[in-house]
Amino acid sequence: MTEQNKKRERVYQVSSNREKSSHKLRYVEASAPHEDDCRLCVGSLATTDAQPCDFTVANTSYNDISKIAFLEKQLYSNDAYSAAFFYQALRQWPHTFLTLKAGEKTAGYSLMVPVSDSDVSLMSLLVGKMFQGKGLGKLLLSDSIALARSLGYKQMELSVAPDNASAVSLYRSFGFNTTKTVRDYLGPGQDRLLMTLSLWEN
């Protein structure tokens, strides 16, 4: 195996439990794309010198699905959300499905799912490793929160691994509070903090 094939990319992801309606945030490892991978998809992950002001967050369109699905496939392999799932998500939740872009490149996405008339759950938020260190996680989360608030939701919820200090710190910096810790939330040894954020304007 060459050094290139051994190369790993770390990505920042908030993802739902594939079997339940609960959610989790974690750091995961994904294989770097090979030279013969789809240029369209790899282009969505290519290293960029773009600065935060060059990125935009907008409602997801059908043209974004293939790149978003590629991001998922790299992370979760056979357990990844499929393109069909994202098409269905876009049909069901078109107003709470966001894509982060730098020009034609797809840098990440955010998917929020309403759980009641007043509550929304942050189901998935992803920013690729090569786009990190630019404040883009904060940008995407900030825009997600602003969108949820503008749509009239009063509370946002999520869950996060207790030992994921950077993620917990990020959420707390946005005002999320821990409501409780659930042991074995996603299976033996998979404890999670449940966090909520009030979206009421002060």
Protein architecture, described:
- The chain has 202 residues and is an alpha+beta fold.
- It has a single domain, classed as Aminopeptidase (3-Layer(aba) Sandwich), CATH 3.40.630.30.
- Helices cover 27% and strands 33% of the residues.
- The chain has six helices and nine strands, in the order H-E-E-H-E-H-H-E-E-E-H-E-H-E-E.
- Strands 1, 2, 3, 4, 5, 6, 7, 8 and 9 form a nine-stranded mixed β-sheet that branches.
- The radius of gyration is 16 Å and the shape is globular.
- Keywords: Transferase.
- GO terms for molecular function: acyltransferase activity, transferring groups other than amino-acyl groups.
Write a concise keyword list for the protein shown above.
202 residues; Aminopeptidase; 9 strands; disordered N terminus; transferase; acyltransferase activity, transferring groups other than amino-acyl groups
